[in-house]
Design brief:
Helix 3 packs across helix 5. This protein has a single domain, classed as 3-Layer(aba) Sandwich (Rossmann fold). The chain starts with a helix and ends in a 23-residue tail after the last strand. The protein is α+β, with helices and mostly antiparallel strands. Strands 1, 2, 3, 4, 5, 6, 7, 8 and 9 form a nine-stranded mixed β-sheet that branches. It is built from five helices and nine strands. Pfam families: DUF436. Belongs to the UPF0340 family. This is UPF0340 protein QUW44_04445.
């Protein structure tokens, strides 16, 4: 059995270290991908735990809410990786609502916990989050803005689940060698 207090502590520590490096602002979106089966030491989708889902989601909400950062919780492939968000967030970002409700083995314990904790939870199909936390290799990269940047923290696992942390940055389209006139072989003389 996994120690829920330890899971909460690992979640808080990993999230705190990610936030220190990601430089998110109020109004940004943070995505959580979560396999409670993996946290328990099982295989993704085969040993879900609502208690673990509640512990992790509540820990993240309690950290993000005072900062004004919005949480989106990604579901599993059985609901096409739809995301639970607050209805107000969907309206603010022009996200289209889809019709599906999570179950313990379709959407998962993390989504159920989000439905329990959000004021007006709805599901959306796609999102472009500013950063995220993937607990149990749930593949959140498609939901994080391009360009995704891996973030290293001291927390490599939560429970038994491997963790991945992502932030994002704007695309680099220039730099020290960038040119703003056509001269592909750098043949122009400066002077």
């Amino acid at each position: 059995m996994v120690d829920l207090n330890q899971v909460k502590q690992q979640t808080k520590q990993g999230l705190t270290e990610l936030l220190e490096q990601a430089h998110l602002e109020a109004g940004d979106i943070f995505i959580l991908g979560l396999s409670t089966s993996e946290v328990r030491g099982g295989q993704i989708g085969e040993d879900s735990s609502i208690e673990i889902g509640r512990a992790i989601v509540k820990t993240i909400i309690d950290t993000l809410q005072p900062l004004g950062i919005h949480l989106a919780v990604q579901g599993c492939q059985h609901i096409n990786r739809a995301l639970v968000v607050e209805k107000a967030v969907a309206k603010q970002y022009g996200l289209e609502q889809v019709m599906v409700y999570p179950q313990i083995h379709a959407g998962g314990a993390g989504q159920i916990a989000a439905f329990e904790n959000f004021k007006e939870p709805i599901e959306v199909e796609h999102i472009q989050a500013n950063a995220g936390m993937d607990i149990g290799d749930t593949a959140i990269g498609m939901q994080v803005k391009f360009v995704q940047v891996p973030v290293r923290t001291s927390v490599k696992t939560i429970g038994h689940a491997h963790t991945i942390y992502l932030s994002s940055r704007p695309k680099y389209i220039g730099g020290p060698r960038a040119k703003y006139t056509w001269d592909p072989f750098n043949q122009q003389q400066e002077g």
